[in-house]
Specification:
Elements (H helix, E strand, L loop, with lengths): L3 E4 L5 E4 L2 E2 L6 H13 L3 E2 H8 L6 H16 L7 E3 L3 E4 L5 E2 H12 L5 H11 L13 H26 L6 H14 L1 H12 L11 H7 L6 H4 L4 E6 L5 E7 L4 E4 L17 H7 L4 E5 L16 H14 L5 E6 L1 H12 L4 E7 L6 H4 L2 H17 L6 H10 L5 H14 L2 H13 L13 E6 L7 H10 L4 E5 L11 H16 L3
Parallel strand pairs: 1-7, 10-11, 10-12, 12-13, 13-14, 14-15
Antiparallel strand pairs: 1-2, 2-3, 4-6, 5-6, 8-9, 9-11
Helix pairs in contact: 1-3, 2-3, 4-6, 5-6, 6-7, 7-8, 12-13, 15-16, 15-18, 16-17
Length: about 500
């Protein structure tokens, strides 16, 4: 196979068999290639159109034209790099060597074992602006992604500088050089290293590497980067629906059942998910997946039902070979978790249910409330995908009534990125039909149920009823009005600590 090398550091460059390939004159086409290569995973065509082309243009035609130009650069008779179908486009990572990917893999897999000369070469490669010259080639979403990727590259450069400044093979001259650079770039970490190195240790007490201690502090150089180390994959159900899943962190697994309004890529920036996921991933391997019909999973699906939701959870657990694990269910994910735990008691070591319910609104709501639900459902179908956020704001206000105005605006926009208007309405229908009340008594796993006292979307009594129905379940009320907790309210920290104590108490 003809060898392909791609450099993302500095200006985008592509080499085939050592010969530099001419790139399209279009900055958008070059930015598209850089995005596909850097992310290395499939992207929906609609999402790519949103990232790079304005609505007055013909985004789909522009995307097709750009892909045709890029195929001439990276594809060869024995090498297909750009893979696409009716819904998605991706760049086959195993078809090319990518400079930033090779550096990040080396730092991740053998950080303490890189040679001095190898590290110096990494420092030279990283001493530049990633995808230089492509600022403004796309919309706000592309600019935000590019900023985050450049921060990651800067974090990798700082790691390399630290390793050079402390490398056992470095000469005194080299040590002085790299310590000076480290001090200028990250004085807090450099000074912490000097203080730690000078501090005497009790006998037989190992020293914690300063880099790791620094990374654990909020605002540490590697803190933001850690949120983007997740590994995304896809599995396919019997009906050919592709389900996207992600793993992040190390340690015993914790599987989160999917719930509506998630997106594996965008969740990290969410005030309702990002810090929570990061906290869990400190000590565990957190596994999440997007529900069918939303996020990175297939949107165009025939079956959007409770049984399909449970089968998708089974699919992900089987794909990853999980034998025994605790299960986290939030909102309607709680009912999905209950059903899975009853079907597979030998695999579920514990249930954590947050803001959940056992029966949907069609079973329990009064005629007046059902009429209001139907009205909201119809408004969703006609208004969800418009530029007017008023329709989506209906959900924002009930999900997070105590969130800041800025977070509500973010959530309004986030909703449109997670699913289509048609699916948003179909989800509401599916949630109304849920009923696992007769399954609660069959749960055998240790269970904790947490619920906001003044939840505006799912009343706290529905959480209490779940706890009452599950043998031995513990119920913990949270002082909040939010259905989904935001990370700056006190109840968020109470929830995390309570869950940690539950897992520890049961040895899970």
């Amino acid at each position: 196979m003809a060898e392909l090398e791609i450099s993302l550091m500095g200006e985008l460059r592509v080499f085939s068999e050592g010969e530099e390939m001419p790139l399209p004159a279009s900055r958008k086409a070059r930015a598209l290639l850089g995005f596909l290569v850097a992310t290395g995973r499939p992207h929906r065509r609609e999402r790519l159109c949103e990232l790079f082309w304005d609505l007055p243009d013909d985004p789909k035609a522009a995307l097709r034209w750009s892909l045709s130009k890029l195929r001439k650069v990276v594809d060869a008779p024995d090498r297909v790099c750009i893979v696409s179908d009716r819904e998605r486009v991706s760049f086959a990572q195993n078809r090319a060597r990518v400079d930033i990917h090779e550096i990040q893999a080396a730092l991740r897999d053998r950080e303490g074992h890189c040679g001095f000369e190898e590290l110096e070469e990494m420092a030279r490669s990283l001493d530049g602006v990633m995808l230089d010259g492509l600022d403004g080639a796309g919309g706000e979403g592309f600019s935000a992604w590019l900023t985050a990727e450049r921060e990651d590259a800067q974090a990798a450069w700082l790691t390399v500088v630290r390793l050079l400044a402390t490398h056992p093979e470095a000469t005194p001259v080299s040590v002085r050089k790299w310590k000076r650079i480290w001090q200028e770039a990250d004085p807090e970490a450099a000074e912490a290293h000097e203080e730690e190195a000078a501090r005497p240790l009790p006998p037989q007490v190992p020293r914690l590497p300063v880099s790791r201690a620094h990374a654990q502090r909020p605002g540490g150089v590697r803190g933001a980067r850690g949120l983007r180390t997740q590994r995304i994959g896809f599995c396919e159900g019997p009906d050919r629906t592709k389900i996207a899943y992600a793993t992040v962190g190390e340690g015993p697994p914790l599987l989160k059942a999917a719930n509506w309004l998630t997106h594996l890529e965008f969740d990290w920036a969410a005030p309702i998910w990002g810090r929570c996921f990061a906290e869990i991933a400190r000590a565990r391997t957190l596994i999440r997946y997007d529900e069918r019909g939303c996020g990175l999973s297939d949107w165009d699906v025939d079956d959007l039902s409770f049984d399909a939701f449970v089968e998708d959870l089974e699919l992900v657990a089987d794909k990853l070979g999980l034998e025994r694990f605790p299960l986290l269910g939030i909102s309607q994910g709680a009912a999905v978790s209950v059903e899975y735990a009853v079907r597979h008691p030998e695999r579920v070591s514990g249930l954590i249910l947050v803001g959940g319910y056992a029966a949907g609104w069609r079973h329990l709501a009064s005629p007046e409330k059902q009429a209001r639900r139907e009205a909201v459902r119809n408004l969703t179908e006609v208004g969800w995908g418009t530029d007017n956020p008023a329709y989506r704001h209906i959900f924002s206000q009930t999900f997070m009534p105590e969130a800041s105005a800025e977070d509500l605006d973010w959530f309004d926009n986030f909703q449109r990125q997670t699913t289509s208007a048609r699916n948003a309405a179909r989800f509401q229908d599916a949630f109304g039909d849920i009923d696992v009340r007769d399954r609660l008594g069959q749960v055998r796993a240790p269970t904790i149920v947490l619920h906001s006292r003044h939840d505006q979307r799912i009343p706290v009594e529905m959480g209490r009823d779940m706890a009452r129905g599950i043998p031995g379940a513990e119920f913990v009320p949270l002082e909040s009005r939010n259905h989904v907790l935001v990370d700056y309210e006190p109840a968020w920290q109470v929830c995390l600590q309570t869950v940690a104590d539950f897992l520890s108490e049961h040895g899970i």
